[in-house]
Amino acid sequence: METGEVAATAVALEDATVAFRLADARVYTAVEKARLTVDHGEFVAIVGPTGCGKSTLLNVAAGLLKPAAGAVRIFDRPLSGLNRQAGYLFQADALFPWKTALDNVAIGLEIAGTPRRTALAEAQHWLTSVGLGAFAGRYPHMLSGGQRKRVALAQVLIRNPKILLMDEPFGPLDAQTRQVMGNLLLELWTRDRKAVLFVTHDLEEAIALADRVVIMSAGPGSRIIGDWKVPLQRPRDIFEIRLDPGFHDLHREIWSMLKDEVMKGYVQSTQPEARV
Amino acid sequence: MSRIRLLSLQILVAIVLIGAWQLFSTVPVFGHMLLPPFFFSTPLDVGSQIVDWFTTGVIWKHLAITLWESILAFVIGSLGGVLFGFWFARQPRVAAVFDPYVKMANSLPRVVLAPIFTLWLGLGIWSKVALGVTLVFFIVFFNVYQGVKEVSTTVLANGRMLGMSERQLMRHVYWPSALSWMFSSLHTSVGFAVVGAVVGEYLGSAAGLGYLIQQAEGTFDVGGVFAGMFVLSAFVILIDIGVTLVEKRLLVWRPDAAEGRG
Ligand SMILES: Nc1ncnc2c1ncn2[C@@H]1O[C@H](COP(=O)(O)OP(=O)(O)O)[C@@H](O)[C@H]1O
Ligand SMILES: [Mg+2]
Fold it and tell me: CB–CB of B27/B21 below 8 Å?
């Protein structure tokens, strides 16, 4: 990044290897020796075939999973336990179904000791920022998928984390909603430039949003096999950036590598016994 | 089907059934009474018995006793179920040790406990309450246990990432989840509280709806038995309506709350 700050690495995975013990006592190595850094204020997108270990990698960065080998450093400190600097937008629905949208957003402040009234006022402000000011009293099941993702975004951002981990946050949404959400995310991100680690299976989305695009190989033992800088200028508009010639060149270049991995990933995901 | 149409059909069913009952218990067919009044009474007798109970006011005392026993059984059983359900779910080792005993206790038909409770607690309300408690407890216990166990791992992880301590997870995640499971079984547990009370009364007591039915039966007063049954049904339906109202308020956040349960 060309900001004048001291170059601080927000997230650094140093040869992180993650293995799962399967029910039959075999060990499945999901990610092998992943090496990845996200700088302060940098937006990094991870793209890879389904099942390659993208969520696993985010869980490691969040401190929810401990790597079997390798190290995780957060702002140059080794991570132990949960990553308290990070906000995590989960792939699956993670809102508290028994809380209204407003309470869902306010909870992060409330548990940190903010008086309830202040927390609620702040939450209302954040709901408005994500365009849901009028939906404060709704419970999650009364919101659409896209609205739930907006609430989840506000829920994470209200705590002002220095690092934002996002796991296919727009995955289940339709194409139009994804683009609207992408623009919203960029707009919010531009305000204070958090370090973002953004997982997606959609290469176009990755290029449109990120400063760097990282490609993972198909599992098992998936690795990071490519790392591209995105030379497109900011501020960007997701709708228009796709017409940029630079976008197309980069997309073609990355896709030529990714498509082999996608095919491998597909073949492996249909043959479970071949994975160990 | 419109509401009015449905209601009129429902009323029609009652009229036909009661009419047939009245007819066959008073008018002989080929010299035979199809429903001899000695065994089946007649709707008029049953009705006049019910009216009698309410006009003289004797019924209120019995209703109040049964209601009170049911409430106590429900409250005590639920409290115990919630506490133990929570405890077992959070302490897998405790749950594993007690598992066979919980299953054993739950597999016991509760009626056989009634004489023991009467022996221990006397003929007053507490032996009936105890019987209701043994029914309510297990329903609430299993539901709360399930509710705590089956909290979505994503929601839990989200709570942790938002900075919740174990205590805050308890309050904001486990507790609401457990309560929602408990409330989803509210109809069943309230129903069983009433069952416990009435069965207890039936098997030995000096007051309550169960006692009323048992008394009538003891004197071969079939009309009295039927009258007791009708009052009991109405009583249970009223309570169930109350439960539905409470449920609607408490479970607004649930997608299926509006649909209700049977
Ligand atoms: N708890 C687990 N136990 C065993 N295998 C797991 C577990 N979690 C994930 N995996 C496996 O690890 C691989 C990577 O999973 P994940 O990170 O969820 O992939 P994705 O890239 O789609 O997010 C998959 O093959 C998955 O089957
Ligand atoms: Mg995933």
Answer: no
